[in-house]
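job 3f2a | input accepted
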Amino acid sequence: MLKDWIKEARPQTLLLGATNCAVGCGLGFYYGAVNAYNIAAAFLIIITGMLLQILSNLANDYGDAFKGADGAQRLGPIRGVMTGAISLAGLKKFMAIVTIMLSITGLSAVYMTLGNDPHAFAWFIFLGVISILAAILYTVGVSYGYRGLGDVSVFLFFGVLAVLGPQIMITSASGAGFEIYPDAFMLCASVGAGSVMVLHTANMRDISEDSLNGKRTLAVRLGYRLATIYHIALFVTVASSSFLACFMSHKGWEISILALSLIPLASSAYRTIINVHDGALVAKELKYTLIGCAIHHFAWLIVLLVDFWVYY
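job 3f2a | predicted structure (312 res):
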């Protein structure tokens, strides 16, 4: 039973939620201060990002199961709610528990970092509520994920907010003020595009099934050919934004670190594109796309660490 709940949370996806926020926290430390207080705040921020990822996963499964959107020929992982090991009522309670935990860690992180700025505090609480609603409503209620808007949501919440939010919070807690730096702007685009690549890989895997079940994801709307072009464009955005961020605010030679780190993601993107018509082969690339994004994020943490200790 416990195994079914663990699988339902999709722990392998937490690497993306954690490293997205870690990049933002790394920028915050780089432009702010490294101390025990900020490290504790960063820990809460990363936990919050992981819990938001879990809530997104659970809500996605709940919405799909409630609407019967997954057929017998599903290529993705078999979920506990599909086999009957987990009931819809039980899954709903799990979602409520995760939402409470997410609210506690998120509110604590915002209070620690922005508690002295009522205006910023209120805005971040508002953004937190919107993030929770966006996670739930992806396939529940308005089900905007079925309407091809999931990519926009992922870019905003797992890219823009995941990077800029922690950067602003840590720098504010450091006394550096409410400021956004040029490399942070570029990196939120890079991290956001990478997160969308993960979603789009899953959606390309399911093009055939989703078309039959009425799930009009962006991949379904684009079709196989345009979906591959879009996937290429996403990778180009990841790489170009990352390189530009490094060129603008860091050392030129560090671009080589980032270029090397993008090889796994590029390789996975290539295999996904050439096998786009074979959902089973695309399914195998989902974890490699996720790992490729995480490697790129770790490379950025290395760049920030080298800059901080050697050049800053």
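job 3f2a | The first helix runs from residue 2 to 9.
job 3f2a | closed
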